[in-house]
Amino acid sequence: xxxxxxxxLRLPEMPLHDPFVVADAxxxxxxxxxxxxxxSGTPGVGTMVYRSPNLRDWAEPVPVFLVxxxxxxxxxxxxxxxxxxxxxxxxxxxxxxxxxDAPLPVPRPGEYGTPFPVANHRRSTIVAAADDLxxxxxxxxxxxxxxxxxxxxxxxxxxxxxxGKPWMVYANExxxxxxxxxxxxxxxxxxxxxxxDPVVLFRGSDASWITRELPAGVPHQIAPYVTDxxxxxxxxxxxxxxxxxxxxxxxLTDGGIDGDYVQTWAVSPSGRLEGPWEQREPLVRGDSGHGxxxxxxxxxxxxxxxxxxxxxxxxxxxxxxxxxxxxxxxxRTDLDGDR
Length: 339
Prior knowledge:
This is Glycoside hydrolase. InterPro entries: Glyco_hydro_43, Glyco_hydro_beta-prop_sf, Glycosyl_Hydrlase_43. By secondary structure, the chain is mainly beta. The chain has one domain (11-336): Tachylectin-2, Chain A, CATH 2.115.10. 4% of the residues lie in helices and 45% in strands. It has 3 helices and 20 strands. Strands 1-2-3-4 form a 4-stranded antiparallel β-sheet, with no helix packed on it. The radius of gyration is 19 Å and the shape is globular. The mean pLDDT is 89.
């Protein structure tokens, strides 16, 4: 795929959810991945990419990954939360597929009344590979998900431990657990299968500020605790930091969760994936979330996330480390605001 020559778009004009940015020094372009939309020129379930030389001016999106039912008979819907990571000389795409016609068990009767108001179905993060950031990405194993199919493994991300071993860190959804979790499976070096037992990093209810914000009359022990969008980083002080998103002031409705989406984070001071993990107050509120960190070409640490949850657009924040603490320097409205 050729590099773009025109950059007519601005972030307020670009529909996107669950943004993920790769700053590619070789091409001099930022690659912003999101779920494929018709604006890419090729309809279908998959991933598309916007490209920019400066985080302000963006080229029209192009598809980099498309999946059809014949390609992945176990799930050909969704393609949520794409991430692209460098591993062993190639680029690897992680994205979440689902199949609304493949039901999974729901929480026990009585937890929220009978029946449970939201239907559960198969949902798994897959891995696809390409030699170029612009794809085309091909699934490593179209016949089956990488992680156990009975788990709802949403928003998978790649984490490499101190021994150089790969892990998939993911959200095990509240739909399956009620108290959602952030968990991890070790992977093979080919990233195509599990290579050991899972580790639970933390639960949604571990963030004490969530229960502080629950509506009156909602029992804390049965409230739905959402866990979304994990991404891990090593802080300069040596701690391991996990970005994640959830809802505060949440309540369960016939259509799912209703509340305020927030970008939050947790810290493992030991630097170990197993923790123990300490929950921090949210970084960004106001129906914002599913963020990730990247380093801009000028060396600035940046956070990209989407806001609002419905009709989402990309928002950019300049960030800074203070030891193991992550702080917001400023909201970059010069990059994500109107023309």
